[in-house]
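Interim report, section 4.2 (structural modelling).
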Amino acid sequence: MLWRLFTFLIFQAAGATIGWMQPGPLRPTLGALLGVVGGGVIWLLIDMSRGVRLLRWLRLGATSEVAMRTGMWGELSDRVRRLVRNREQLTLESQSRLQDFLAAFQASPNGVVMLDSHGQIEWFNQIAASHFGLDSERDKLQHFGNLVRDPGFASYFSSQNYSTELVMPGRESTPSRPVKLSVQLHPYGEGRLLLLSRDVTAVEQAEAMRRDFVANVSHEIRTPLTVLSGFVETLQTLPLDEEERVRYLALMALQAERMQTLVSDLLTLSRLEGSPPPGGSEWIQVGSLAADLEQEGRSLSAALHGSPDCVHHLLFETSFLGALAGSRNELRSAMSNLVGNAIRYTAAGGKIKVRTTLLPDGKGEFSVTDSGPGIAEEHIPRLTERFYRVDRSRSRDTGGTGLGLAIVKHVAQRHGAELKIESQLGVGSTFNIIFPASRMRQPSA
Ligand code: ADP
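Predicted structure of the assembly:
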């Protein structure tokens, strides 16, 4: 400031000196006039030109360079530059924070849609785009309610009550492949809404399966239980002769056995689901396993037909006599289920062939082929579902639970194996379990 005053005075002194140096009687007046006006005006002009420079510098926004270095204008330009740079820095920081937030929303496994106070789309992530078929170019600022036409969603959207989530059909939902979305709106800010969506198809399917399973188990247990309690009542109320009593008790034992088999199959399934898959360190001799299966099969064939001997042509062909890595109990359960099914569904006198071979690529194959009734093509993909039966009465009559093939599939999966089913109505069926080569070991010399 002092410097400014000093230069101003210098300019005035210079003006006065120039006026004083002029010839004539008006020298003192000219000196005073030039000193006050001329010096002051020149000083003002110079000062204004610096001001204009600063203004132009500000307008151009070239705040990375310094407009002036000295004097009051220099300090002013420096302070403005620093202020602007601080603002720019803050803007950059908040922009990068915004990008971070948006990237986090983008990485979310759920769909996220931000709606303004009019219900128009401000922003959405990729998952939301696929859930609702949104296009980032086309649908920005569109009213969300106009884009999602599901009636359930429309009434939820307009209800203003978003305390619970809504489960609605997904965009690609079809009757054969239902897709379910869980959607919830969360109000925030001034009338804005955050919409979160989640694909709950698998959860809904699991829940439906759980419900079906409980219903099926209850039904399967209730049937023999009803028969049993009927017999108990008969025995309690009616005077029966010895022959009738023995017959009723035998029928009761059959129903009890049926329930026992069901509970045992259910426990097997739950064990298979709840335990880690068997490792590859336990080696089972295929020859002895096949011998056990053959004996069991022959007894079952005889027992089912009330005959002292096996009534089927049961042929065991065990060309691979090495070892198989896995759980003996599980493998035996799966294989005996397949042999048992072949015996149960093939009429007396039918042919059943059980083969264990090593395939050219080193994989192992266990196959059961029968000359039974065969299975129509449409049933084949569903055979391994729990309680799925093609021939309901034959299954029940022969002590089936509807869980056998579900167990076989589980055991196969746990051993890295594949279950293949081929069948032709009226000709017969073949059930194969293909084991990976890593689980097969050749017999040692
Ligand atoms: P189940 O205890 O009823 O036999 P499974 O799960 O073992 O249950 O089999 C499912 C259904 O597949 C059976 O109910 C039966 O209708 C059909 N099935 C299984 N094996 C055979 C077979 N070898 N021949 C004909 N049908 C079969």
